[in-house]
Structure formats: structure tokens, C-alpha cells
Predict the structure.
Amino acid sequence: QVQLVESGGGLVQPGGSLRLSCTVTGFTMSDHNMAWYRQAPGEGRKLIAQISTGGVSTDYADSVKGRFTISRDNAKNTVYLQMNSLKPEDTAVYYCTRGPRDYWGQGTRVTVSS
């Protein structure tokens, strides 16, 4: 059974940092590119970062480039999203998914507010 479980969200002040984790079971994570999406209130789900199977290649949305870093540990079946210099507009529910976009986690909520 394929499962993706996100964690690490919460309330943080502007300028702060959070590290999200997504732990997967039911498939070999090293066989798949992985990605993080987010969905802000009233908006659709948007791709913000993705990483190749071995972690060598990454890509970011312009809105997070230079502030967010995606990484993965295939031995731990976990993909991470390090988020620095957070802004109120980063407030959203963050989801991870695998390459085909066929399975998704339940999401973890990030709120950036003073």
C-alpha cells in the first residue's frame, strides 16, 4: 500500500524557518522523482520544488527559489523541504508526491504570521 506522510508544519513568524519531511512506504522511493506542492487558501495546488531520483537535479518555483531547499534520503525513504526566510505568502498546506503524481500525502499546514 503506497503511503506518503508529511510532517513538520506549524506556525512560524515571518523570517523564520521550518523543515518539512515526507516519509513514504509501499514503493521504492529511489525509483521516483519526488516533488513538493502547496495549496494556499482559495488557490489551486502549485508545484514548488522537485528532485530527481538520486538527488542530483532539483528545480524550484520562482516564488521559493533561494529560500527553499528540497533534498532526499533514499535510505530513509524520506524527502525534505527546508524552508528559510518564510513570508506570510508561504502560508499553505504543503503536499508531497512522487513522479507520476498518482499518490499524495494528506498535507501539512504551514502558517507564517506574527
Notes: The longest strand covers residues 18-25. The mean pLDDT is 97.
